[in-house]
Amino acid sequence: MVQAYILIQTEVGKAASVAQEISRISGVTQAEDVTGPYDVIVRAEAHNVDELGKLVVAQIQGVEGITRTLTCPIVHI
Question: What is the pTM of this model?
């Protein structure tokens, strides 16, 4: 299982609705609107890196109001 945090920037005033919509996507375990340089932080999981990429590109980035994403895979050192 691969897990990642996805840092999201949104259009002004869209953070709450983006977080709410993303939280309904299968594979997303948590989605919170936050303050700071990013507007929403998502924790997601998939069976492998390819599936994680598909989740981010095909589903999360398709949510209206998102302007940029940064995917940070979780590593266990």
Answer: 0.93
